[in-house]
């Protein structure tokens, strides 16, 4: 499937925005009183899950699950920008809000609060290259703090368009 030019432009704009905001945030927390400090763990990049980590699921493996038995399908939650979700997303996935925002984390908590803690959940974003994603790690960490034990993050190396849509994997548009 070929991506439409407006979608690519939108993804590029969102990616640049995320990188700029992340950079500015990092600069504002880089020093306090002349002493260097690290950003809080909730602001960690997705790249802390190196490719091949057990916390990750590859697109090919998720597609196989989507085509498999209904009782083996995970709850798929999009924790990225709403604009990208509206342009294209995984069928059956739910948008809960950007994992890098307090509102997104609160929405995630609300969505999962009644679920058994062994529920199979897959989180994904796809806003930008893996090592710059500000959304999946905070969402993943929050679910683990709540006691969820079967959470995976969809490994999207470059962006959702390149690593999912352009490969012809199942995609729908809108809400």
Provide structural commentary.
It is a single chain. With 175 residues, the chain is an alpha/beta fold. It contains six helices and seven strands; from the N terminus they run αβββαβαβαβαβα. Strand 6, helix 5 (136-145) and strand 7 (151-154) form a beta-alpha-beta unit. Helix 4 (102-112) crosses helix 5 (136-145). Mean pLDDT is 81; it is low at 6-43.
Give short descriptive properties of this protein:
175 residues, alpha/beta, Oxidized Rhodanese, domain 1, two-stranded antiparallel ribbon, 6 helices, 11% strand, globular
In short:
This protein has 175 residues and is an alpha/beta fold.
Biggest sheet, spatial arrangement of strands: 3-7-6-4-5
Identify the overall geometry.
globular
The chain-level mean pLDDT equals: 81
* Integer tally of domains: 1
CATH class value = Alpha Beta
C-alpha end-to-end distance: 20 Å
Helix percentage range: 25-40%
Q: How many DSSP helices? A: 6
Class derived from helix and strand content: alpha/beta
Low-confidence stretches: 6-43
SSE ordering? HEEEHEHEHEHEH
Largest sheet: 5 strands, parallel
Strand content bin: 5-15%
CATH structural fold name? Oxidized Rhodanese, domain 1
CATH homologous group name: Rhodanese-like domain
- Radius of gyration from CA coordinates: 16 Å
* DSSP E strands, number: 7
